[in-house]
Structure formats: C-alpha cells, structure tokens
C-alpha cells in the first residue's frame, strides 16, 4: 500500500533519507510515526532505520550526537530537529528478560522489523509513501489489534517490558490485544519484576494518560500483570473499581497518581511509600500528597479557603479533574478557580506585613514571631482580617500579648 500525502514531518526529514540513500544505503521511517500516520493521528518524533552502520551514518552528516551508539542509534541534527537514526539490527540473548546480551547490526530491513514488539510497530515507510509490511501490521491496524511480532511467549520472555507496552498501546489507541498475545502476558507477568521500575512507571502512566484507559486496564487486571507492579497486589479491588469508573484518560502524571492515591484511600505517609517504590521524583510525591488531600475535600464538598490556599491553582485543577473522573462530586473548574482567585492572598509573601515590620514594632526575633505570622496568614486567608499593614500589626501585637 502507498500513502498519497505524507505529513509535513516526513517531508521535512526527506533530505536525511535522500542523503543516506545517495551514499548507497537503505533508509526508512519506522515505529510510532508510521503507525500514527496510518491512523490519522498526529506524530511526535520521526524515527529512521537504516542499513548504514553508525560510523557510516556519522560520516554523512555534519552534526550528529551519539545518543545510543552501542545499540546503533545516532541522532542527526537538521535545522533544529533531531532525527534518531538506528542501524538495522537483530538482538539475541535476553538472559535477564530485559536487555539483549548482544546486538548485531545487519543490512536487512526485514530482520530489523522482526525484532520489533508489535506488528503495528513493525511497519516501514519509504519517502515515496510506500509501506513495507512483513508481519501483517496493516491488517492488525485495520482491525484495531495489538499482536506481538512472532511468538508472544518468546517475545515477552525476551523483554518483559513489552507486556506493559501492550496495555499502554491498547489504552492509547483503543485497540484490542490479540488473544495469543494476552495468553503470553498471562504466562509471563511475573517477569515484570526483572524490569527497572522506572521503565514500568513510564508505561503505566502512559496507559492512564491514554484516551481509553479501560482498554489497557482490563488486560492489566485480567492477566494479573498488575500484581507484579510495585505495591499493587493488595489493591486489586480498588484497581478493578477504577477500570469500571474511568471513562477517559487523565491529563498529566500528577493526576494519574492522585487518582491512584484517592482510589486506594492512601494516607500522606502511604503516598510517599507507594511513590518511592515506583521511583518517583520528590516533587511529584509532594504534589500528589497535596492534590490527593484536595480530592478528598472536593469530593466531600468541604473545600474551604484554607484548602484552596494550601492546594494552589494548578493542583486544584488537577484534584478537581480526579474527583470528577472518579465520579465523585466536583466543581465547575472555572467556579473553583474563581474562588481561588478571590482569596486575599495566594502566598505568605503577599501578607501586608513582614517579620521586619513586627521587629520594628518591638517583637523579638524567635519562634513567636513565626507563630504570629502564621496566625495572620490563616486569618487573612480565611477572610477574618483585611490584608492591611496596620490591621495586621495591631492584630499581631494583641495575639502575642494574649499568648504571653
Ligand atoms: P510512541 O508514540 O509512544 O513514541 P513508539 O511506537 O514510537 O510509540 P517507542 O518507544 O518510541 O514507541 O519505540 C519506537 C519503536 O521501537 C517501536 O515502534 C517499536 O518498533 C520499537 N520498540 C520500542 N521498544 C521496544 C521493545 N521493548 N521491544 C521491541 N521493539 C521495541
Ligand atoms: Mg516513538
């Protein structure tokens, strides 16, 4: 088959392929960009596969970066765009269920496509629009099916991450996973424990960001794959509820984990633990803790000024989305933002008084001064006090006198 009009991204990359071909090698567009074009979806990055060896690729272009040269990947820089260009290769070994023991560069496109995970990802595209399809990927695309290239049992045994990739593509594309491929996941789920948690994390989040999360979650649950993800084993009921409730994907990673935390009913401490086990960054953990608290307030309709203030605008929007997607009560986003915007202050810095002012009025530096500022902050946020220097000063002095 032939694509009549190629997306602009491919047209822009054509000089790269032309240069490689002019030197006597083959080069094709491969991977997600080809699949997504055929599905009429926007494409992110254009990946190129070539028969030229990495050193040969490098000799043809002025600006290249060795992004993964031991696996044959060189990034070619062209007018501000980077093109990952990977030499055709086969892989063998996989004794650790995740990385091939050896990568062998080959000159055959078919051998390269043969090592790819799913048939819909094993298509190659020529610059004239011709699609090369050795494994019936076009039929699977048409039938909305995810099917391993070759024997799924073998392919998941080679690289267990592919099982997570299967469920995330199901959720991103609204595709069904082929029954033999599902059986492969059922048989090999436990191998996921051999995979670096960071890589599982990426795929899990992509699954819940996909537009049809239930498509992935169904298989994730039914095959038992979830049990081999950090800390998920004890939460099968909650994950099951989630797949029934969740009708569309989330908009960012903080929302994903806040949804999980709210569904599992986790405490502040438990969120920290779970996300540490999932190898998350500290900032993400803090955001999820804050957002999850706000989800509870939103769904129990107990949002007050202090909750708004402590959560902050960005996390409020996220928490509101999570409450909505969980089918809990939630707000009109604009109304919630309006309530937040109406607060007198949005940070402690905005208080119309400083520690300096209090000291100038005779307050001694020390814990009391901090307590007085905290008191003022709370009173101003709650609307009990006007944010005016004189008002705050006299209130602080009364407060400290009463405490003394
Ligand atoms: P996305 O749109 O998310 O980037 P993608 O299909 O491009 O999806 P990538 O992770 O960018 O996915 O990988 C590019 C291509 O490399 C895939 O389409 C597939 O052909 C191949 N590939 C990636 N990971 C694996 C793997 N674990 N096993 C086999 N082939 C893989
Ligand atoms: Mg890609």
Automatic annotation (TrEMBL):
Residues 250-395 form the CCA-adding enzyme C-terminal domain. GO terms for molecular function: ATP binding; CCA tRNA nucleotidyltransferase activity; CCACCA tRNA nucleotidyltransferase activity; magnesium ion binding; tRNA binding. Mg(2+) binds at residues 45, 47. Gene3D superfamilies: 1.10.110.30, 1.10.246.80, 1.20.58.560, Beta Polymerase, domain 2. Residues 27-147 form the Poly A polymerase head domain. InterPro entries: Bact_CCA-adding_enz_type3_sf, CCA-adding_enz_C, CCA-adding_enz_firmicutes, NT_sf, PolA_pol_head_dom, PolyA_RNA-bd. Residues 174-234 form the tRNA nucleotidyltransferase/poly(A) polymerase RNA and SrmB- binding domain. It is an enzyme of class 2 (transferase). ATP binds at residues 32, 35, 116, 159, 162, 165, 168. Keywords: ATP-binding, Magnesium, Metal-binding, Nucleotide-binding, Nucleotidyltransferase, RNA repair, RNA-binding, Transferase, tRNA processing. CTP binds at residues 32, 35, 116, 159, 162, 165, 168. It catalyses: a tRNA with a 3' CCA end + 2 CTP + ATP = a tRNA with a 3' CCACCA end + 3 diphosphate; a tRNA precursor + 2 CTP + ATP = a tRNA with a 3' CCA end + 3 diphosphate. A single active site specifically recognizes both ATP and CTP and is responsible for their addition. Homodimer. This is CCA-adding enzyme. The lineage of its organism: Bacteria, Bacillati, Bacillota, Bacilli, Lactobacillales.
């Amino acid at each position: 088959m032939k694509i009549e009009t190629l997306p602009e991204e491919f047209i822009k990359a054509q000089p790269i392929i032309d240069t490689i071909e002019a030197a006597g090698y083959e080069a094709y567009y491969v991977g997600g960009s080809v699949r997504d074009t055929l599905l009429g979806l926007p494409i992110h990055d254009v990946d190129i596969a070539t028969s030229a060896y990495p050193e040969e690729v490098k000799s043809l272009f002025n600006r290249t970066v060795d992004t993964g040269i031991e696996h044959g990947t060189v990034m070619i820089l062209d007018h501000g765009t980077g093109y990952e260009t990977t030499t055709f290769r086969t892989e063998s070994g996989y004794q650790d269920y995740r990385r091939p023991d050896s990568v062998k560069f080959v000159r055959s496109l078919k051998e390269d496509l043969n090592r790819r995970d799913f048939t819909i990802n094993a298509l190659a595209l020529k610059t004239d629009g011709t699609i090369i399809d050795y494994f019936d990927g076009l039929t699977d695309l048409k039938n909305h099916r995810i099917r391993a290239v070759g024997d799924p049992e073998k392919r998941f045994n080679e690289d267990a991450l592919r099982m997570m990739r299967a469920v995330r593509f199901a959720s991103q594309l609204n595709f069904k996973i082929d029954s033999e491929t599902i059986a492969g996941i059922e048989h090999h789920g436990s191998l996921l424990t051999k995979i670096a948690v960071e890589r599982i994390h990426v795929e899990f989040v992509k699954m819940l960001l996909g537009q049809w999360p239930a498509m992935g979650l169904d298989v994730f649950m039914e095959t038992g794959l979830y049990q081999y993800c950090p800390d998920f084993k004890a939460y099968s009921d909650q994950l099951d509820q989630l797949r029934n409730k969740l009708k569309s994907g989330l908009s960012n990673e903080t929302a994903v984990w806040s949804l999980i935390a709210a569904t599992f009913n986790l405490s502040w401490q438990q969120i920290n633990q779970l996300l540490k086990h999932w190898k998350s960054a500290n900032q993400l953990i803090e955001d999820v803790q804050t957002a999850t608290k706000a989800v509870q307030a939103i769904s129990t309709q107990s949002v007050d000024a202090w909750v708004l203030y402590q959560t902050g605008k960005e996390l409020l929007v996220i928490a509101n989305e999570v409450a909505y997607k969980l089918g809990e009560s939630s707000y009109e986003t604009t109304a919630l933002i309006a309530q937040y915007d109406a607060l007198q202050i949005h940070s402690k810095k905005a208080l119309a008084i400083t520690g300096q002012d209090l000291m100038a009025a005779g307050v001694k530096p020390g814990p009391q001064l901090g307590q007085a500022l905290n008191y003022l902050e709370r009173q101003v946020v709650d609307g009990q006090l006007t944010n005016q220097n004189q008002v705050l000063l006299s209130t602080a002095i009364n407060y400290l006198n009463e405490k003394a």
